[in-house]
Write a structure and sequence with these properties.
5-stranded antiparallel beta sheet, extended, Heat Shock Protein 90, Rossmann fold, 22% strand, alpha/beta
Amino acid sequence: MLNRATFSGVTNMASILLVEDNDDHAILAQAALSGSDRMFDVERAISAEECLNMLVGRDYDAIVMDYSLPKRNGLEILQDIEKLSYDVPVVMITSHGDERIAVESIKRGAYDYVTKSDDYLAKLPLVLQKAIEAHEMAKERAELQNKIEESENRLRNIFDNVEVGIVEVNDDCSISYANPKAKHYLNIDDNLQDTNICALFMGNGKGCASCEVGKCLKNGGSVSYEIEHNNRQFSATINATKGNDGSVKQLVQVLMDVTEQRELQNQLVQSERIGALGRMASGVAHDFNNTLAAILGRAELMLMDTSDKEKIERDLRTIQQAALDGAETVRRIQEYTGVAKQKEFTGINVNGIVQDALRMTEPRWKDQTQRDGVKMDVSLDLESQLNTTGSASDLREVLTNMIFNALDAMPGGGELRLKTYDNGGHVCISISDTGVGVTSEDIGSLFEPFFTTKGVGHTGLGLSVAYGIISRHSGRIDVYSEQGKGTEFIIKLPARTGIAQQEKAGVAYQKPGKTSALVIDDEESIRKLLADVLAQLGHHVTTAAGGMEGIEEFQTGDYDIVFTDLGMPEVSGWEVAEQIKALDQSVTIVMVTGWGSELDEDSLKDKKIDFLISKPFQISQIAEVVSKAMKVKS
């Protein structure tokens, strides 16, 4: 079976048991496996009972199993295979959208899974090959480790033939023996007397005290770790040999090149992250829908009554804040994928955050309920006198989600109560409703990802996201509920002394002196917006609809500052900056991009960028950059 599984040019075929009750699916899977260049011999079972009977007295290299089988599903069959002690990798085939079932299959002992997507038949041979190879590799390593433990003398007889590196190390860290594979790994020859294992791996002058070899020599026993050498990754195991006096006399080091395995693991991790991001999509849509609901609702209210200027200004500030919170949702996605840095926490006025969240959700709890003829009583009690620190947009997201959850729990109307108060060293926010409540069985699972009591169409991500945000703020969420009588969530945040730096949607703009600006952006809406902002600030503005047009315009004009987009067809913002700086070193280059959180200062300096503004931007940012640029020139 080992020769079949290695796929290294051996003519023997890998024997596969396909468990599939659907004839059409079975024919397609058999054709995909038998027709591949990886040499699979496929036999089929149409039921759980037939599968288990075929396993008795027959050796297979792997099992490919459809999860949905008559009478018994794939998870139940996995348990039966385990009871038989039948040690082969199992690849589970699940329906599209059954990721949780696939994950549960892995927990129950399956090696991997393939989802029935459009190209799953093309993926199946490669997944199966990797499963067989990994299974055989694990068996080889386990057998080798057992042999090491049984007898050092017995190991010496096979040292020259194994496919791993074997090194004997003296008590002074010099190498006394290395098998051919170890010599290849370590790039050393037969003259071992002057080769020090610590210096070979550490290369930093710190000596034995700073490496695992030195620690094992000092303490004895066995140590496992990973090292990097000659741009390769190795899994190493060290076993100590002790003399009659109990001191360590010699070490045996086993080296296995795991470079390809680690690269594969990294790819699988990235694949899982992408999959998780896909599962997050509906939750992200939920956040954006909340933001858009606040913007749309406020805009419609303003259109209904244009006479109250104070109310219009207040609603405009709410729309502005909702747009900024939408940008924060994008930032959280970027943080998840590792392309954005976490921002620093600032002082927060908790009462103000609660008022913001209530105002942003007003179209839902006031206008919509009035339209539907539902009575909803909303009360606000702000008793807290303390502040906290954190991200205002993140906390607004938590409160907005909880308000919407409370409203969902009261489809026929009820009471929504928000309250802030101080409790010792904590600022507390209470959100309570008189809705349907939560059962005692479900209350412990409320903050688990994908858990929901709302039924189909809801992601179950809102409260898990809220829990993560509050945890990052060193806080906690307590929940009290009784079925039929309502629910109360209490958010506890650590109190902070000092004055909160509450966000302000309105900004007083101080116009700097006049300057000549060139705006380059292929998006007409952004190009016109930037031009209008700069003109409103009193500057002379010229626009260009692309990188090449912008460079040509710069050559014919006289400009103090250039605003350029990054991603443009034909000529990118990087090239624009490079060519314009080559023409005039003194001109100020401002990069305006939606990828601002992904760029670091070193790359900006290398690309001749003086200032960076991330989309969406505020007028105050434009004014500040122009002011700084003019100060530098003066």
